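Ticket reopened. Same input as before:
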Amino acid sequence: MSARVVHCAVGPDVIDPVDVLSRVGSDEDGAALLFVGVVRNHADGRPVSGMRYDAYAEMARKELASIAHEAAQRLGTDRVAVEHRTGELSIGDVSVAIAVSSPHRAESFDAARYVIEEIKKRLPVWKKEHYDDGSDGWVEGTVPPGTGRRVPAMPDAEVEG
Amino acid sequence: MTLSVNTLFFASYRDLVGASTLEVELSEGATVGDLVDELRRRGAPFDALPEEPAVAVNQTYALLDEPLGPGDEVAFIPPVAGG
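Engineering reply: fixed in the latest deploy. New output:
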């Protein structure tokens, strides 16, 4: 089954979570879920004054579309909408919004969680925290799967004769 | 015979290298790993890149023994931190 996805975006435009939520939902759906990621004012006990999001934009759009399609398969509906913002953000700004809907709630919770966790694992996006003392630093990230030195060695296959 | 690829550096790797793009000439049949080795052999600042960085070839994540072709776009991907 191929899943269609309602909406995917990566870019500098301000995210309106209500707009993202309004893109999902149907008369069949008894559950609609909205997840919003927000810039907070602290990191590891250190006061933070803002955050810059950099992206490999063309790849991030493709990767986010893949994640959304995988989520749609789990969800069993095509009602997935997701936006990720780039550029300079202030405390309280929305960095990511994910909306899904499905006939029952379990699939929506599962699919929304899947999207945010996969974003953190795979989306080529980086953030630089600006600290209150005027310094800044790249946030420590996650090495994406499917990268590294070489293809894992395959065990010797028995040749059937 | 040589092939030319376009390398991209993002975030902390861009800060490290001091450039966001770089064209690199490689021998025919070179892999992503050969590209990494070639850059690191050039010394500073490239030798500060990891020996086994995450990369994407033409916007798809790739292992380091993936072969490269002429004009490929090879992005060096620091650990990601979206969300």
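Chain B touches chain A through 26 residues (CB under 8 Å). Chain B is about 20% helix and 35% strand. Please confirm and we'll close it.
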